[in-house]
UniProtKB/TrEMBL annotation:
Naturally occurring in which organism (per UniProt): Candidatus Daviesbacteria bacterium GW2011_GWA2_40_9
Alphabetical list of InterPro entries matching this protein: NAD(P)-bd_dom_sf, Polysac_CapD-like, Polysaccharide_Synthase-Rel
One Pfam family linked to the record: CoA_binding_3
Domain spans labelled Polysaccharide biosynthesis protein CapD-like: 151-433
Coiled-coil segments: none
Protein's name in the database: Putative nucleoside-diphosphate sugar epimerase
PANTHER family associated with the record: POLYSACCHARIDE BIOSYNTHESIS PROTEIN EPSC-RELATED, UDP-N-ACETYLGLUCOSAMINE 4,6-DEHYDRATASE
Assigned protein family: Belongs to the polysaccharide synthase family.
Length: 503
């Protein structure tokens, strides 16, 4: 019988691939930590019984719980960066049943330097158990597209913009220009990229996309060929209170940026949109829907290829539910859920950005790309899972409180309007559609002009009226999407009750 102190250092590595082998090298380099690797776990039949780095492969993931007991292990390292979330859930479930410590090597798209480092090994997150695999072949194809390009990312200090910058930096562009008003976020991103991407010429620009002179200066100085427009106001309840700011940033800022990109003959312009632009019930969603119409218009006017990419919630983004739940759990609760039937699509930030880049590669102009967001998840289930991952029991140790829906929120989100038809692309996680709203260009531009004036005069009622006139479904959403009766959701997938049953 191994004593507890020794057992806590006896470890299994799940994954005998490149990441697992690099982790062994890292652990050997830190003798003072005292970890003893008793074996690898791997589902590859050809590796069973063999030794890798002098360590035997002792079984498969389905046997993990028994192997932990058999080898008196107290610690498990999960080293499968490209694994599906379903596999991570299964591994975590086995570790929790066996009552051992478990940690994970970062996902493929998190490993900026391309190698595993011991300091980056971390606790399992909700992103890990919901994530999907990313293929290395896709990375190779993207590098062919973006290597040597001059690229501009707006909103670069935000959740999506910063991850876009990280991933684009790996593809060795000629220059990567990162534009944002948040100087602290830009500074931190600059430090991070300088540490890991020495070959990339980068330029941080502090400024506002509503400042036409500054945007023109950026285009004149750096002549970007590819623009990723991620800058936006996206907080639904706050924008309900400040619709003029949503118009200024999401509509006017987009107009300035897209127009100058066309005037300067940029090659591609990718607008980062949202599923909240579909049958919008909020000012934020309505302004993004209007911006999609502007992108369609500019694609007809200029030679630049304009495309929109529409997706749902990303886990861990600024202002999203995941970091909110993390803070609430750290405080001991309660974890606040707006409605017991609230459903959202989720994907990790790195995965969302990977698909944005894939869509950008495909874009020929005029498309709206729709991302497969995976299985829809009940927010209540998400809360319970995050509580368990933090080592607590829902309701018993961390209470959950229902607080009611907020202004502009839907119970169910949609990624397509009923009238929109989607087509498959070469990537089975990306679909393409066209904006089907029949709006005359003159009417669109006239409404744009009025919205800009109304935003400058703080006329909030006028803004809502203009958006309602031009967006037929704004303010006309079925009651089942707004009230406590969930009714019949407009989802192509229904939440799978088994998604979280293992954790």
């Amino acid at each position: 019988m191994v004593d507890r102190q020794v057992r806590n250092k006896r470890s299994i590595i799940v994954g005998a691939g490149v990441a697992g082998k690099e982790l062994v090298d890292q652990l050997k380099g830190y003798h003072s930590l005292g970890y003893k690797i008793t074996g690898f776990i791997d589902d590859n039949e050809t590796k069973q019984g063999k030794k890798i780095k002098g360590i035997p492969v002792i079984g498969k993931t389905s046997q993990l719980e028994n192997l932990i007991s058999q080898h008196e292990v107290g610690n498990v390292f999960i080293a499968i960066p490209s694994a599906q979330g379903s596999l991570i859930r299964s591994i975590v479930n086995s570790c929790q049943k066996a009552k051992v410590t478990f940690r994970i090597v970062p996902r493929t798209l998190e490993i900026v330097r391309g190698k595993v480092h011991l300091e980056s090994v971390r606790s399992v997150s909700i992103e890990d158990v919901l994530g999907r695999a990313i293929l290395k072949s896709e990375q190779t194809e993207l590098k062919k597209i973006f290597k040597g390009k001059r690229i501009l990312v707006t909103g670069a200090a935000g959740s999506i913009g910063s991850e876009l910058s990280r991933q684009l930096a790996q593809f060795e562009p000629e220059i990567l220009v990162m534009f944002d008003w948040w100087e602290n976020g830009l500074f931190e991103l600059s430090q991070e990229l300088s540490d890991h991407q020495n070959r990339v010429k980068q330029k941080m620009v502090v400024g506002n996309i509503q400042d036409r002179a500054k945007v023109e200066w950026v285009f004149d100085k750096f002549t970007p060929q590819v623009i990723f427009h991620a800058a936006a106001f996206k907080h639904v309840p706050l924008m309900e209170e400040h619709p003029e700011e949503a118009v200024k940033d999401n509509i006017y800022g987009t107009k300035i940026l897209a127009e100058i990109a066309g005037e300067k003959k940029a090659e591609k312009f990718i607008f980062i949109s949202t599923d909240k632009a579909v049958n919008p019930t909020s000012v934020m969603g309505a302004t993004k829907a209007f911006a999609e119409l502007l992108i369609r218009y500019f694609n007809k006017v200029y030679s630049t290829k304009y495309s929109s990419v529409r997706f749902g919630n990303v886990m861990g983004s600024n202002g999203s539910v995941v970091p909110l739940f993390q803070k609430q759990i750290a405080r001991g609760g309660p974890v606040t859920v707006t409605h017991p039937e609230m459903v959202r699509f989720f994907m990790s930030i790195p995965e969302a950005v990977q698909l944005i880049l894939q869509a950008a590669k495909m874009g020929k102009g005029g498309e709206i790309f729709v991302l497969d967001m995976g299985e829809p998840v009940k927010i209540m289930d998400l809360a319970k899972t995050m509580i368990r991952l933090a080592g607590f029991e829902p309701e018993k140790e961390i209470p959950i409180k229902i607080i009611g829906t907020r202004p502009g929120e839907k119970i169910f989100e949609e990624v397509l309007a009923k009238e929109e038809e989607i087509k498959k692309t070469s990537n089975n996680l990306i679909f393409v559609t066209k904006n089907v709203l029949k709006i005359d260009d003159k009417a669109l531009l006239a409404t744009l002009g009025r919205l800009i004036v109304l935003s400058q005069t703080q006329d909030r009622c006028g803004i809502i009226q203009e958006l309602t006139k031009i967006l037929p479904t704004y303010g006309k959403i079925p009651a089942s999407h707004l009230r406590n009766d969930p009714g019949k959701p407009l989802l192509t997938k229904i939440p799978d009750p088994d998604v979280f049953q293992q954790i």
